[in-house]
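Sequence of SapC protein (Paraglaciecola polaris LMG 21857).
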Amino acid sequence: MQLLSPQEHGQLRIIQGEYLDPSFAVNLSTVMVSELAFLAHEYPLFFYKSARSGEFQLAALLGFESGQNLFLDNGNWMSRYVPLDIQRRPFQLHVPDASAVNHASIQTGVPTSGHLAIDPTSPQFSETKGESLYNDDSSATVTLLHYQTLFSHLLSASEQTRSVIATLVQHELLEAIELNVTLKNGDITLNDLYAVNVKKLNGLTGETLQACHDKGVLQVCHLLMSSGAHLEMMIERANK
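Predicted 3D structure, token representation.
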């Protein structure tokens, strides 16, 4: 990976509208609470525990096996809304001091807690086609500013998402599930996912119920529970 700069990457262009980078071949995409209203119409949504931090993450299920993305077909994304974590690729945010993320400024619309980094050999980049990243005067183009703003939003949205997940954990509203999927080539079991504990959700009363409502936790729960209907569409795609 290289830190993005006009000196090193002034001639580089990014190919948009085609999903060519290997990083798009994933079966889970981390998502934010702020985008759930869009995601719930097209993706099954679950929680999982980060292998790195051990913390719960909110995610859209994209496939049933590692590296399988059933929303990707020959470089085309097969849904109207693309998760923010997919939209920001192939860029990554290099943060020398992880604690700096909590002090990111969102006033200017660009992340100040890190620097964009890229793999210039990615098929998503070209020097002959796509949108330029830098103007002739080395300033960021509208295209690059879009990605900077996207990372800024992800940084700020992650705080809200962590707060909602903390409330869910506090009230024991998550439970481990075993997702059994029957495909024409055999059965697949996903046992590292978590879902809303409906029994405990329905048992909320009084101040706890009001607090969950005020924090948007109830809405998040209902969006996740309704999203499971999209598993049938994924099974159909997997069976083609």
